[in-house]
Amino acid sequence: MPDVGLVEVWGFTMNLQYTLANQPKVTMLTEAAIARLREHEPEEGYYLAFSGGKDSVVIYDLAVRAGVRFDAHFHQTTIDPPEVLQFIREHYPDVAWTKPKRSMFQMIVKHGTPPTRIIRYCCTELKELHGVGRTVVLGIRRDESQLRKDRPIFGESTRQKGTFFCCPIVDWTAADVWDYIRSRSLPYCSLYDEGKERIGCIMCPMQGPRGMLDDARRYPKFYRAYLGAFRRMLAARKTPFPCGSTAEEVMQWWTGQRFDSETIQTNLLEMSE
Predict the structure, then answer these.
(1) Are strands 6-9 and 12-15 parallel, antiparallel or unpaired?
(2) Fewer beta carbons within 10 angstroms: which end of the chain, N or C?
(3) What is the C-alpha to C-alpha distance for residues 205 and 116, in angstroms, rounded to an integer?
(4) What single DSSP character describes residue 166?
């Protein structure tokens, strides 16, 4: 936690005194979130999905304050930033770690394409199919994306019948999350202090080309592993890959360096069929 009065977050400066000015709002949001957790608490307790990001830090703290029963789980993706892994080990030793059946690099070969903003098999296989038959606490917020703008507080999963979800901070903004973290002096991953807007998988397409290339420079080992997966993917495909014939060309396309606006949508649709 910075000791200074100003902190750089997402490219703009926030005054820590702003937290104090917004304490009434933080209190109101906190009470509502705790009430939601208590209202929907299942007999067997919650399955809390913990990613190591700012939102999961908040829902973990809220669950503790609500006094509800829960067990927290971190779903490894095999492309998690080492800073996130270290953060969880150091600050949340009670969180259970779950290893995937396949690595991201194996999934790329299996699906015949890297994941994209449209083709998101990685999220489905690595993050979303957990807590089956349980009520899963998620740190999802509506302002994160258009796909989440209508997310309810509580409901049944559309992918797993009998699995429910509870989103206690679904109506919070990113600023609300940071206000809560500062008001509670909660730990958070150091990557945020380096300007990261979101913490996710290394070279995740959802962060855009700039973020992907930043990750490639920061984590060269993972960059080389992706190239190796692309080579194996190209060799395993029964038909030519529409966005590159070499691993290097696929990487350039994937990271937005080879972008043909007229053909890219057609290529994506071909791969998703």
Answers:
(1) antiparallel
(2) C
(3) 6
(4) E
For residue 75, give both structure tokens: 């779903």
3-state secondary structure of 74: strand
Q: Which domains does the chain have, with CATH numbers?
A: 6-194 (3.40.50.620), 205-272 (no CATH)
- Show Cβ contacts of residue 43 under 8 Å, excluding neighbours closer than 6 positions: none
pLDDT at residue 139, as a whole number: 94
Q: Could you tell me the CA-to-CA distances from 205 to 36, 212, 256 in Å, in that order?
A: 33, 7, 10
Query: 160-195: per-residue pLDDT in tens?
Result: 889 999 999 999 999 999 999 999 999 999 999 998
151: which residues sit within 8 A by CB, 6+ positions away?
A: 140, 142, 167, 170
pLDDT, greater one: 111 or 124: 111
**Long-range contacts made by residues 249-258, C-beta under 8 angstroms, separation at least 24?**
250/114, 251/226, 251/227, 254/114, 254/116, 254/205, 254/212, 255/203, 255/209, 255/212, 255/213, 255/216, 256/208, 256/209, 256/212, 257/209
Query: Is 133 in contact with 159 (CB distance < 8 Å)?
Result: no
Tokens of 146: 């258009």
Tell me the residue ranges of DSSP E strands in the chain. Answer: 6-9, 12-15, 46-49, 70-75, 96-98, 135-137, 154-156, 164-166
Beta-strand relationship, 46-49 and 12-15: unpaired
Judged by phi (left if over 0) then psi (alpha if -120 to 50, else beta), residue 182 lies in alpha
Other Cβ atoms less than 10 A from the Cβ of 247: the count is 18
More confident site: 18 or 174: 174
A 10 A CB-CB count for 50 gives 24
Q: Residues with Cβ < 8 Å from 240, sequence gap 6 or more?
A: none
User: Residue 19 in contact with residue 170, Cβ under 8 Å?
Assistant: no
